[in-house]
Amino acid sequence: MSEKEAKRITVIQAAIEGKCTNQQAAERLGLGVRQVQRLKRKLERGGSFAVLYGNDLPDRQSEERH
């Protein structure tokens, strides 16, 4: 995991824990607030792997489609 990837996980986790706002996380990562919200959801559902590689858990994807 690169420093950039580690920072992304750390900042998103801080936002989930309420240590910073979505706006603050977005500014730290150079992203929009909406993208931070998406990343928070991905981290909660699929862990750091989902955030880093854009994958979600396969069973969750199929459940959401049906």
Summarize the topology.
Elements: H1 3-16, H2 22-29, H3 33-53, H4 58-65
Helix pairs in contact: 1-2, 1-3, 2-3
Question: What can be said about this structure in brief?
Answer:
The protein is mostly helical and 66 residues long. 77% of the residues lie in helices and 0% in strands. α1 packs across α3 and α2 packs across α3.
Describe this structure in words.
By secondary structure, this protein is mainly α. The protein contains 4 helices and no strands. The protein has helices at residues 3-16, 22-29, 33-53, 58-65. Helix 1 packs antiparallel against helix 2, helix 1 (3-16) packs across helix 3 and helix 2 (22-29) packs across helix 3.
Helix content: over 70%
As a whole number of angstroms, the C-alpha radius of gyration is 12 Å
Could you give a short account of the major beta sheet?
A: none
Q: What structural class do the secondary elements suggest?
A: mainly alpha
Task: Tally the beta strands.
Answer: 0
Q: How much strand?
A: under 5%
Number of continuous helical runs: 4
**Uncertain parts:** none
Number of domains: 1
N- to C-terminal separation? 34 Å
> What is the overall shape?
globular
